[in-house]
C-alpha cells in the first residue's frame, strides 16, 4: 500500500514542513532521536515533493527532496565517489512504473536485477589500504562524511584485515542485531544512561561516541565495493566492470560480512515478476530476522546498465528502495495493566494511545517484567517507540525521553497479586503470585486440556469455568476423578455430552509422558522441550530424579533453565503423585530409560524415540499446507510424527537440513532448499515414508 502524502495547503505550511523534515532528519542521522517515526517522515517528505511538483518556482534550498539523506549533518572527510541516497517506491505498481522508466532511460529492458534487504542501519564507507582498514566514514551529506575511525575494532563483520592486500572501499550498513541492542541497553543503563529508543538509534549514537566509558558491539553488512585512487591498475577496472552481484561475492571472499549468510541473501532476478516475488518472500521473513530491515533494495545488476542510467544529485537512477510498512511508531503510554498467567506469573502490559502499525491498530504492548520497566525508566504519559513485526506481539522499545514535558508519572508496581490478593514472590525478574497455578486455575486447566497437550475434547474454557465454580476441580488431577453424577448435575450437561467428556478424559490418561509434562506447564518448557525431556528420561520417575546437571544434557536446556525446571518439578510433586494415582500414564512410548541412575548418560546416549526409523539421523522441516493423510495434523502433531519416526524437527532450512516437506503455498523455505540442493518431498510422499508411524 502506498504511503499517503501529508497534505500541504499553502506556502507557509510547506515552509514549516521543510523545517520539520530537516530537523527530524538531522536528529535521525546523528543519534536516532527524531520526534518523527519512519512512516510519519515518509508522509511528510512525499507531501513536500507533491507541493514542489505543483509549485516548482517556490522550492526552498534546504528542502529534503534535493539532499542526500534528507539533509543529514555534513562531515569533514570528502567521499571519493558521492554516497547517495535512494528514491522510494511503496507498491508493486510504483515499482513496475519505475522499472519501465529505467528501461526507457537505458534503451532496453533491464537484463538482470539484484534484490537484497534494505538494512535499517547507518551507512558508512570503510577504506582499506593494502588490505588493512585505515578509515571509517559516515555518509554525511553524501559529499563528505564524519570520521568515525575510532570505532574500528568494535564492529563485527568488518575485518581489520582483508583476505587479500587490496586497496578498496567497502560500503555498507552498521547496525545492531536484536541481541546486540538488548545488550547495549543493559550496558548503557548500568552506566546511568537512558536506554536507546531503537536499534538504529543505538548504532548511530554508538558509532559516533568517542569518550564513553564502555563499548557495545555492532554488526556490518556490506552492500558496495569500489576501487580507491592509487588502487592497483589490474584491480581498478575489474571492479568497475563487475555486476553488483559479483561485487558482493568478491566482498565476501575478502572476508567482509554480507547478507549472503542470512535468511534473506541478496539474489538476482530476470523479470519484474521475479523481483516482486522476492520482495514478498523477504517481507514474510521480516519478523524472524535478528536485525531490522525497512525495505528491499532493487538495482540494475549489470555495470553497463548502471552506467547508462547514471545518477541524479541525490540518488542513482538505476536503484530504488521498495519500502515496507513501518514496524515502529511513536505513541503515548497511557497506563499499565498487571495480568496473571496460568502459572501465576504476574505480567505487566502497556495500554497505548491507539496507533496503526503495519496495517494493524495497536492498543497494547508487552513490557516483559518490572525490572524491564525500571531499566527502561518508563513513565505513564511517556511518548514511547513501539515495535511490531508480523504476528510478533508489539513491544515497547524505550521512551522517547527528549519529548518529555515533566507531567509524566512513575509506574506503580503491585504490592499484592492483582488477581487473588496473595503475596508476590519477587525473587526473580518475573514476579509470581505465591499461590502459583492455583491463582489462575481456569487458565492452567484450559491450557492442559488443549489439543497439543492432553487433547480433551469438550473441555473448553466455558466448561472449565463451570467445573471450577462448582468446586469439582481444584487442580489438574481432579479432572480424572470426575464422576458421571457430578457432571450430570451441571447446567447444560446432558447424557451425551457427559459421556463424551468422560470418554475424552479417559483417553487423556493414555497420552504419552511428553504431553502430560507439557500439560503441567513447567516454566521454561513447551511442546518441543517436553518431548525432548520425555525422550531422554523415558519416565516421570527418572525426570523427577534428575538433578540440574542431568537436565542440562537435554538439548536446549542451559545452566540457567535447568535448575528452575528441577525446582518446579519438585514443587509439582504432590500434583504429579495425584495424577499417577488417578491412572495417568507416566512413561514415553518407545523411549529407553537412561543407563545411569541420575540420567547423566552423556550426549551420545541421549534417547531418541524411533531409532532406526525411516527418518533416523535426519533433520526435517515442514512448510506450506499439508494435504492427504497429513491434512488434519497440527504442526505440533507433525513434529511428534517426525520424532516418532526417528528424525528431528526444525523450523528453519539450513545446510544441516536433510529433508523439506513442501506443501501448498511453500515459499522461501522451499526456494532455499532448492538453492542448497536439499531433498524435497510432497505431503503424500512424506506420508508414505512414515506410514508405519502415522496414528
Write the layout of secondary structure elements.
Blueprint: H1 11-31, H2 38-54, E1 77-78, E2 88-89, H3 92-106, E3 113-119, E4 122-129, E5 132-138, E6 144-145, E7 155-156, E8 168-175, H4 178-190, H5 199-208, E9 218-227, H6 235-241, H7 244-254, E10 267-269, H8 272-285, E11 293-300, H9 303-309, E12 319-323, E13 328-340, E14 346-357, E15 360-366, H10 370-376, E16 379-380, E17 383-387, E18 395-399, E19 409-410, E20 424-425, E21 432-433, H11 441-448, H12 461-469, H13 484-488, H14 495-508, H15 513-520, H16 527-537, H17 540-545, H18 548-551, H19 561-571, H20 573-581, E22 619-623, H21 635-644, E23 648-650, E24 659-662, H22 668-675, E25 679-681, H23 683-689
Parallel strand pairs: 2-12, 7-9, 22-23, 22-24, 24-25
Antiparallel strand pairs: 1-6, 3-10, 3-11, 4-5, 4-8, 8-9, 11-12, 13-14, 13-17, 14-15, 16-19, 17-18, 20-21
Helix pairs in contact: 1-2, 1-5, 11-12, 11-15, 15-16
Key terms for this structure?
Helix Hairpins; D-amino Acid Aminotransferase, Chain A, domain 1; five-stranded mixed sheet; 25 strands; alpha+beta; 33% helix; OB fold (Dihydrolipoamide Acetyltransferase, E2P); 23 helices; 695 residues
Strand content: 15-25%
What is the count of distinct domains?
6
CATH class of the largest domain: Alpha Beta
How many beta-strand runs? 25
Shape: globular
Q: Name the CATH homologous superfamily of the largest domain.
A: DNA ligase/mRNA capping enzyme
Low-confidence stretches: 597-610
CATH fold-level label of the largest domain: D-amino Acid Aminotransferase, Chain A, domain 1
Q: Which strand order does the major sheet show?
A: 2-12-11-3-10
Please tell me how large the radius of gyration is: 29 Å
* CA distance, first residue to last residue: 45 Å
| Named CATH architecture of the largest domain | 2-Layer Sandwich
Structural class by secondary-structure content = alpha+beta
Percentage of residues assigned to helices = 25-40%
pLDDT averaged residue by residue: 86
- Major sheet summary line: 5 strands, mixed
Q: If helices are DSSP runs of H or I spanning 4 or more residues, what is the number of helices?
A: 23
Amino acid at each position: 500500500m502506498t504511503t499517503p502524502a501529508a497534505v500541504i495547503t499553502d506556502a507557509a505550511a510547506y515552509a514549516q514542513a521543510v523545517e520539520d523534515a530537516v530537523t527530524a532528519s538531522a536528529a535521525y542521522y546523528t543519534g536516532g532521536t527524531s520526534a518523527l517515526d519512519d512512516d510519519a517522515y515518509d508522509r511528510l517528505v512525499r507531501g513536500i515533493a507533491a507541493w514542489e511538483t505543483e509549485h516548482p518556482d517556490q522550492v526552498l534550498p534546504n528542502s529534503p527532496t534535493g539532499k542526500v539523506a534528507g539533509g543529514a549533518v555534513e562531515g569533514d572527510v570528502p567521499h571519493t565517489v558521492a554516497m547517495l541516497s535512494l528514491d522510494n517506491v511503496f507498491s508493486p505498481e510504483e515499482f513496475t512504473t519505475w522499472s519501465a522508466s529505467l528501461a526507457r532511460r537505458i534503451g532496453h529492458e533491464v537484463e538482470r536485477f539484484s534484490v537484497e534487504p534494505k538494512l535499517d542501519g547507518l551507512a558508512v564507507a570503510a577504506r582499506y589500504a593494502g588490505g588493512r582498514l585505515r578509515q571509517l566514514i559516515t555518509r554525511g551529506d553524501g559529499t563528505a562524511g564524519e570520521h568515525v575511525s575510532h570505532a574500528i575494532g568494535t564492529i563485527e563483520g568488518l575485518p581489520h584485515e582483508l583476505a587479500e592486500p587490496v586497496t578498496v572501499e567497502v560500503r555498507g550498513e552498521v547496525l545492531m542485531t536484536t541481541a546486540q541492542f538488548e545488550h547495549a541497553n543493559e550496558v548503557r543503563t548500568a552506566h546511568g544512561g537512558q536506554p536507546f529508543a531503537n536499534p538504529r538509534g543505538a548504532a548511530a549514537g554508538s558509532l559516533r561516541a568517542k569518550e564513553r566509558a564502555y563499548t557495545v558491539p555492532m554488526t556490518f553488512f556490506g552492500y558496495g565495493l569500489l576501487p580507491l585512487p592509487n588502487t592497483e591498475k589490474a584491480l581498478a577496472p575489474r571492479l568497475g566492470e563487475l555486476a553488483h552481484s559479483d561485487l558482493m561475492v568478491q566482498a565476501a571472499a575478502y572476508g567482509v560480512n554480507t547478507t549472503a549468510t542470512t535468511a534473506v541473501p541478496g539474489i538476482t532476478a530476470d523479470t519484474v515478476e521475479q523481483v516482486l516475488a522476492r520482495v514478498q518472500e523477504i517481507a514474510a521473513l521480516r519478523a524472524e530476522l535478528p536485525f531490522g530491515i525497512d525495505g528491499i533494495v532493487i538495482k540494475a545488476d549489470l555495470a553497463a546498465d548502471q552506467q547508462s542510467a547514471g545518477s541524479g544529485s541525490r540518488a542513482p537512477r538505476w536503484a530504488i528502495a521498495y519500502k515496507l510498512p513501518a514496524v515502529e511508531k511513536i505513541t503515548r503510554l497511557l497506563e499499565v495493566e498487571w495480568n496473571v498467567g496460568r502459572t501465576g506469573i504476574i505480567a505487566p502490559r502497556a495500554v497505548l494511545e491507539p496507533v496503526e502499525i503495519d496495517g494493524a491498530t495497536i492498543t497494547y504492548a508487552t513490557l516483559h517484567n518490572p525490572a524491564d520497566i525500571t531499566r527502561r525508566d518508563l513513565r505513564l504519559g511517556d511518548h514511547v517507540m513501539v515495535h511490531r513485526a508480523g504476528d510478533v506481539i508489539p513491544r515497547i522499545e524505550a521512551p522517547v525521553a527528549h519529548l518529555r514535558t515533566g507531567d509524566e508519572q512513575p509506574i506503580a508496581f503491585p504490592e499484592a497479586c492483582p488477581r487473588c490478593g496473595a503475596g508476590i514472590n519477587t525473587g526473580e525478574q518475573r514476579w509470581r503470585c505465591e499461590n502459583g497455578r492455583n491463582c489462575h486455575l481456569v487458565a492452567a486447566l484450559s491450557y492442559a486440556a488443549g489439543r497439543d497437550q492432553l487433547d480433551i475434547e469438550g473441555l473448553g474454557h466455558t466448561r472449565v469455568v463451570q467445573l471450577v465454580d462448582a468446586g469439582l476441580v481444584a487442580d489438574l488431577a481432579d479432572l480424572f476423578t470426575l464422576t458421571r453424577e457430578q457432571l450430570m448435575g451441571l447446567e447444560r450437561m446432558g447424557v451425551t455430552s457427559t459421556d463424551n467428556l468422560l470418554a475424552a478424559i479417559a483417553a487423556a490418561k493414555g497420552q504419552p509422558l511428553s504431553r502430560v509434562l507439557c500439560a503441567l506447564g513447567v516454566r521454561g518448557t513447551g511442546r518441543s522441550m517436553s518431548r525432548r525431556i520425555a525422550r531422554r528420561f523415558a519416565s516421570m520417575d527418572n525426570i523427577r530424579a534428575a538433578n540440574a546437571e542431568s537436565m542440562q544434557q537435554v538439548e536446549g536446556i542451559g545452566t540457567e533453565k535447568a535448575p528452575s525446571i528441577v525446582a518446579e518439578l519438585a514443587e509439582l510433586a504432590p500434583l504429579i503423585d495425584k495424577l499417577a494415582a488417578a491412572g495417568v500414564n507416566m512413561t514415553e512410548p518407545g523411549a529407553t530409560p537412561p543407563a545411569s541412575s541420575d540420567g547423566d548418560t552423556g550426549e551420545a546416549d541421549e534417547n531418541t524415540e524411533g531409532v532406526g526409523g525411516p527418518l533416523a539421523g535426519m533433520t526435517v522441516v515442514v512448510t506450506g499446507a499439508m494435504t492427504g493423510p497429513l491434512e488434519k495434523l497440527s504442526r505440533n502433531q507433525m513434529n511428534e510424527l517426525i520424532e516418532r519416526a526417528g528424525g528431528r524437527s526444525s523450523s528453519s532450512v539450513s545446510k544441516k537440513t536433510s529433508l523439506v516437506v513442501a506443501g501448498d503455498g511453500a515459499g522461501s523455505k522451499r526456494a532455499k532448499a532448492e538453492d542448497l540442493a536439499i531433498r524435497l518431498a510432497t505431503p503424500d510422499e512424506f506420508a508414505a515414508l512414515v506410514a508405519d508411524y502415522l496414528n
